[in-house]
Amino acid sequence: MASDTTLVVSNPGQLGSARTRRDFLRIMGIGGAVVLLPSVLSSCSDDDDDIFGPGGQPGSGNTVTIDFSKGDIAVLQFAYALEQLEADFYTRVVAASGGSNLTAADNAVMADLKNHEVIHREFLKIALGTNASFTLTPTYPGVNFSNRTSVLTTARTFEDLGVSAYNGAAQYFTSTTNLLVAGKIVSVEARHAAAIRDLINPKSGDFAPTPFDDAFSPAKVAGAAQGFIVDKLAFANAPSTFVQGPNNNG
Q1: What's the CA dihedral at 116, 43, 221, 198 to 10 degrees?
Q2: Could you give the 3-state DSSP secondary structure of residue 66?
Q3: Best CA proximity match to 160, nearest among 135, 127, 190, 198
Q4: Percent of the chain with pLDDT over 90
Q5: Residue 73 φ then ψ, to 5°
Q6: How far is it, in rounded angstroms, from Cα 1 to Cα 6?
Q7: What is the pLDDT of residues 162-194, one digit of tens each?
Q8: Averaged pLDDT for residues 132-158
Q9: What's 37's DSSP letter?
Q10: What is d(CA 134, CA 153) in angstroms, rounded to the nearest whole number?
Q11: In the Cβ-directed half-sphere of 35, how many Cα atoms lie within 13 Å?
Q12: What residues contact residue 17 under an 8 Å CB cut-off, 6+ apart?
């Protein structure tokens, strides 16, 4: 620990330690900083080496099925799928920053968000263990990584969707520990969403456009995310009920 609000992670194995997990969740809950040393970023990026990837049409690849009969494991797998997508997106944004029209301030935020999403992805991967056996192939039809408007609009879509996904899926957790972990992560995603909205329309009320965040069902989230995933995202034994959130639009 460098200070009460800074967590320094020097190697990827450290992310799996109980102490680091506790510190990570505590810091994310109070808005502190996580510093990833170069060894962590390089080790956590095996699936990001070819950052622009092979691409492909959404839903044209192999089927990845999440079986909700597995309970909390399935909910965490669902979150892991979304975090893979977000981590990949921001990795591409950062890689393209040298040739984009994003401002220096924009790029600083994008770099922070990339590091957060990589941490979320790797944390869930460690938590799931052998149940984190799938790697999605993202694709970004219509997204111009050199264009500020395109990047920020897509980032807003991902962050809003992530918040809605965690809020909606929370009702399916049976473990209070897992619910707490998800609550910590979604609080960070909500800050991301607010930051992106402020970049798009600074000093306005857009950073928090509604009194309550959306809560979407897994099916609605998967439908929206599928437009950015080559693999076919499918559910088995999907929940038969969904309790609507305060906006009643899930």
Answers
A1: 30
A2: strand
A3: 190
A4: 74
A5: -60, -45
A6: 6
A7: 999 999 999 999 999 999 999 999 999 999 999
A8: 96
A9: P
A10: 28
A11: 10
A12: none
Structure tokens at 236: 């088995």
Handedness of CA 53, 132, 231, 244 (dihedral sign): negative
Which residue has tokens 């959130």? 245
From residue 10, give the alpha-carbon distance in Å to each of 6, 14, 48, 93, 217: 13, 7, 19, 24, 37
155 Cβ contact partners less than 8 Å away, ≥ 6 residues apart: 89, 90, 93, 110, 113, 192, 196
Question: Which amino acid makes up residue 184?
Answer: K
Residue 13 has pLDDT above 60, yes or no: no
Which runs of consecutive H residues, i.e. helices, occur in the chain? 18-30, 38-43, 72-95, 104-128, 148-169, 176-200, 218-225
Q: pTM for the complete prediction?
A: 0.81
User: For position 6, what pLDDT does the model report?
Assistant: 57
> Considering only CA atoms, which of 107, 104, 135, 109 is closest in space to residue 121?
135
The answer for residues whose C-beta is within 8 angstroms of residue 188's C-beta and 6 or more apart is 28, 116, 120
The residue behind tokens 């049976």 is 174
Domains observed in the chain: 1-43 (no CATH), 51-236 (1.20.1260.10)
Name 229's bridge partners.
138
Q: What is the C-alpha separation between 178 and 194, in angstroms, rounded?
A: 24
For the stretch 57-98, pLDDT in tens is: 999 999 999 999 999 999 999 999 999 999 999 999 999 999
Q: Are strands 33-36 and 63-67 parallel, antiparallel or unpaired?
A: unpaired
